[in-house]
Every structure is written in structure tokens, then in C-alpha cells.
Specification:
The chain has 226 residues and is mainly alpha-helical. It has two domains: 2-60; 73-217, no CATH class. Helix content is 50%, strand content 6%. The chain contains seven helices and three strands. It has a three-stranded antiparallel β-sheet with strand order 1-3-2, covered by helices on one side. Strand 2 and strand 3 form a beta hairpin. It is elongated.
Length: 226
């Protein structure tokens, strides 16, 4: 009996020692991990401190999918019902400029007609023949006689937005286009005019579409713009 009791005590002491040793090893492992993480974080901070600001901005801008670009549909139903289902858009200068252009140039058109005019503006932004921003394209030539590209910017009339429903429509179209909605209506058009006029360039540019009250044209690569 005494022998068995002694063996049991010895075994208990051994188990306790093993647990204590395990606890010591875990604490040691935690200490090593903490030390290594601290070193890594220190290296990261050092690397960030010497990186150029513009490079860091490029690295930290989220990809297009995370910026919401993928929310623009790959195909569109050009209806008022579709626009009514969308929230009131918010955005910066590009949204404001494009919305204003669509309001003054196309608010009386169908939804499809508004999109078509918006396509022309963004096609120009993408072309090396024109300025590289939405607002610059819209206001190109404004202030010079016969040089403005969009009539409302130089017709001498005050640009007053007094039709809230029309503004809601065009701003939603502008938001969809800026977010990457397909430009499938005008086959890359860079120009348009109402059917009531016949500008000289329209005889030289290939017509790509007729939508609502507008004809649409694509500027030939080697032909200068009027």
C-alpha cells in the first residue's frame, strides 16, 4: 500500500512538473512571438516613413471594384422606372459638371437620349484630342466667340436649374455613366447636333446614331474639330 501511494505521489509530481514546464514554454513562445511582431511592425513603420507620398497614395487607393465601380450594371434598361429605383446620387465636381451638361443639353430627351449625350462627353474625355476631365471637356472654348463645344456654356443665358424632377433624372444618368455604365448607344460618338441644324462638320464625320432629337457622329482620327 505504501509503495503504491509513493508511486502515485511521484506520478502526480511529474504531471504537475509537466504542466509547469508547458506553461513556461507557452509563456516563452508568447514572448518570442511578441518580440518578432514588434520587430516586424518597426520595420513596417520605417518603410512607410521613407516611401514617397504619391506612391503611398497609389498603394492605398482601393481597387475599382471596392470603389463601387462594379455597381454600374453591365447592361441597362433605359427607362424612367430604372432611374426611379436609384437613390439620389452624390459626388464631386465631375458629377456636378456632367449633370449640368445633361440638364441643359438633353433634359427634354428620353432616358436613352440623355444617356447618348452623356456618352459623347465621356468619349471625349477618353480621347487624346480633347481635355482629360469631364469639366474641362464641357467647358472647352467657353468664353471665346464661336469656340464653345456645348451651346449652353456660351449662349448668354443664365444657367438656372429650376426643374427638380429633370435634375433628378439627369444626375442619376450622370452617376451611372461616371460609375462605368456601358456606352452602347452611339458607337463611340464624339459629336452630336439637333436635327434642326446642319453644321459643316456633319458632312465630313460618319453618323453613328439618331436618337431623339439628335444625330450622333464619330470624329475621324485625322480630321480637326470645329
Amino acid at each position: 500500500m505504501t509503495s503504491s501511494s509513493s508511486r502515485l505521489k511521484i506520478r502526480s509530481v511529474a504531471v504537475l512538473a509537466a504542466f509547469l514546464s508547458l506553461g513556461t514554454n507557452i509563456a516563452l513562445a508568447d514572448s518570442v512571438i511578441e518580440s518578432r511582431l514588434s520587430a516586424l511592425l518597426g520595420q513596417e513603420r520605417e518603410a512607410l516613413s521613407v516611401a514617397a507620398t504619391d506612391r503611398m497614395a497609389a498603394l492605398t487607393v482601393p481597387p475599382a471594384a471596392q470603389r463601387g465601380v462594379e455597381t454600374a450594371p453591365k447592361s441597362l434598361e433605359y427607362t424612367q422606372a430604372m432611374l426611379d429605383s436609384l437613390p439620389t446620387p452624390t459626388g464631386g465636381e465631375n458629377l456636378q459638371c456632367l449633370s449640368e451638361a445633361l440638364y441643359f443639353e438633353a433634359r427634354g430627351e428620353s432616358v436613352q437620349g440623355i444617356f447618348a449625350v452623356g456618352e459623347v462627353i465621356l468619349n471625349r474625355v477618353d480621347s487624346s484630342a480633347y481635355p482629360g476631365s469631364v469639366c474641362s471637356v464641357i467647358h472647352q472654348g467657353t468664353g471665346r466667340k464661336y469656340a464653345c463645344q456645348f451651346t449652353y456654356t456660351c449662349d448668354g443665358q443664365a444657367e438656372v436649374i429650376n426643374e427638380p424632377e429633370a435634375w433628378d433624372r439627369v444626375s442619376k444618368v450622370a452617376k451611372l455613366l461616371l460609375d462605368g455604365a456601358p456606352r452602347a448607344l452611339t458607337a463611340g460618338a464624339t459629336h452630336y447636333h439637333t436635327k434642326a441644324v446642319s453644321p459643316s462638320w456633319a458632312r465630313r464625320f460618319p453618323r453613328t446614331a439618331a436618337i431623339g432629337s439628335h444625330y450622333f457622329y464619330r470624329q475621324p482620327t485625322r480630321t480637326a474639330s470645329n
